[in-house]
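Q: What does the predicted 3D structure of Aminopeptidase N look like?
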Amino acid sequence: MKDSSPQTVYLSDYTPFGFVVERVELTFRLAPESTRVTSRIRFAPNPETTDRTFFLHGEELRLVSARIDGAEVTPDVTERGLTCAVPDAAFTWEAEVEIAPAKNTALEGLYMSNGMYCTQCEAEGFRKITYYPDRPDVMASFDVRIESDLPVMLSNGNPGAAGDGFAEWHDPWPKPAYLFALVAGELEARSDTFTTRSGTPVDLNLWVRPGDLPKTEWGLEALKKSMRWDEEVYGREYDLDVFNIVAVDDFNMGAMENKGLNIFNSSAVLASPDTSTDANFERIEAIIAHEYFHNWTGNRITCRDWFQLCLKEGLTVFRDSQFTADMRSAPVKRIGDVIDLRARQFPEDQGPLSHPVRPDSFQEINNFYTATVYEKGAEVIGMLKRLVGDDDYAKALDLYFERHDGQACTIEDWLTVFEDATGRDLSQFKRWYTQSGTPRLSVEERYEGSDYTLTFRQHTPTTPGQDEKAPQVLPIAVGLLSPNGDEVVPTTLLEMTEAEQSFTFPNMASRPVPSLLRGFSAPVVLEREASAEQRAFLLAHDTDPFCRWEAGRGLARAALMASVTEGAAPDVAYLDGLRQVVADPALDPAFRALMLQMPTQSELAQALAEAGTTPDPDAIFAAQEALMRAMAERWQDLLPDLAEQARVTQPYAPDAAQSGKRALGAAVLSLQTRLDGGTAARAQFDSADNMTLRLSALGCLVRADAADDALAAFEAAWSHDRLVMDKWFGIQIMLAPPAKAADRAAELTGHPAFEMTNPNRFRAVMGALASNHAGFHRADGAGYDLLAHWLGKLDAKNPQTAARMATAFQTWRRYDADRRARMQTALRTLRDRPGLSGDMSEMVGRLLG
Ligand code: 0A1
Ligand code: ZN
């Protein structure tokens, strides 16, 4: 483990490495406690610099021997790497190291999961495998030989010689070390072939432990769809003879785009109707696409340094959302993405962890795989596309691939491509990459003569380390509706560049109703004092699905806030307006299900804090329950009809049409449970023939505190399946009545199947607690103490996952003095633990500010 005083690295300090790597040859002799790795690396002086310091990263390695051009050398070895005197000209470095994959619980570098060997090298895991310049701008082709008695041995690139006890792999595409991968184990594959549009056949394999083969069909289909889509939409073809995917049970993140050998968290690739929900199927399709798309946006063109992470991640998330929009419903995908952005990125950008999409300093890069880099990074690309238009976006992307293939690039390179392809000056737009915080946008309307004028003001509150904020380029998509509901001005893109700016629409016969920020055209908080009538009007008439949904969401938020702050009764006008939309059989059931989804308790807490009211988690929970109950009571006559509309009669398929119906059905069942205490939910639980229906019913029962029998039956039926048991652990905490959530989580840490070293299981318990808003924020601090205690324990074994989960505390400043003090104490106790990791120490330090 690294020491707890990591150093801060600055973007402005970038310098190239003094050597280029011409070739890497690696041999692995696998053994759980003592794997031997020998490396033979050809270095040559880098003509771009005169600095010839020869420093190779290396951590937790036992150096057995080192040679330069065949002669033994004795390098200077520290905890972080080695230095050595080297010749002035090209030379060959050879080293042998010993590592212990079986002892690696951090899941970075080479480790073991269920008896199989696997690797995770992004961002800085390769240095735990051998000594190497472990930085993304050092790219090389790799030859790998694996020796073991395991039947399957895989690495990047194309297969070479293989025989009894060994397998060789050759990757012709120069790559940084973070894309290196190795897998060995008793695995079986579902296989297929994909023929690229230029006619080259590619062998596809999805490798799993033998019992998991029935869960591989969906993943492989998703891979083929992704390969075809990238050819059709971006003109990108695959570039090796094989594409291997491996499912691994112990994995810190969702998946990893290693060249030609993607490694997946089994939860992000394995699916079957009986064990996975519709949401799981959709997520798997998206993650397979995401990792596959990285082959061009990340692998063929990579990042110069880790500050440029959004170069590959923002673009690849943007590409995978386009893919999902094409495969499923574009408006439903967009609304889902906005819900997610507001739930995860907005709190980050408005709290102590706020950082620019391209950070300019960090201590531990693992802590910067954030919603800001990924999701806001994707929003920035969406804005760029909106501003330049679809054709110029396509031109710019073609130029990007042509100009930078095989290179390690920066955000400057990316923006220059857009400037060159479109003739636009993007210097102001670049602020989206360098300025942190969520811009707030307010608007005033004026109607004079026949001129209708919208005046916008933008302002970004200060964020840690950034006191001054400059105006950003905001693409604001606007439509105007006449009072009778007709659209009089179709979607028009206003380009705002000033702190305050007006846009006039002449010749308006009557005062229109504006539909603002259509499609959520910029990731801002729209501060708009729309009246309930205006919102209800937009809910009924807006042609833009996002704005229509947003109008309903705004009404729900206002009703809930009034209930929390003034004890107002549930807003009947809102319920009746919503009913019109929800009952409309012409509308997509998935869209109607989204309309029925209430603002989250955390979102309400944020909105209250912004309005100057200290949020009370119990009051928020109670208000939400009261509104749902009122809705259920007022719509009693409608619910059976809605349930019928949501019924699927065909055999199960995880497609958009069926999933939409089941999502609507789940929302209806949740209302029904408020009326019958769980009778309908129990009936659905018992008769369900797929996991989506079973789990939504179980969730209703848990929320009604009537799930004991169902939970026992579920456990008895599924104790053999880890992924299903993660659902079982999670749901009974996530949806537990708030007073019980922390106790339930504590109790489940004593369950024989609770394994803290498995990130999925740890998240199923502790992540679920953090997501039960009122449960986590229980007034006596039990939720805080439990989470902090377990984060401390996990930190000693797996700092990366532990530190990520500490983000649950990022909103601590919102709450009342008592809760604040309890959260601070929990964080300080965590901070003061002996041997705290660098990851966690950076995180807690930033959280406490
Ligand atoms: N690059 C992968 C996810 C990933 C990110 C960070 C990791 O370790 C710090 C590992 C994997 C992706 O975007 O899918
Ligand atoms: Zn990615």
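A (community wiki): The structure tokens above were generated from the sequence. Residues 120, 122-123, 253-257, 290-291, 313, 366, 369 surround O-methyl-L-tyrosine (ligand 1) (CB under 6 Å). The longest strand covers residues 19-29.
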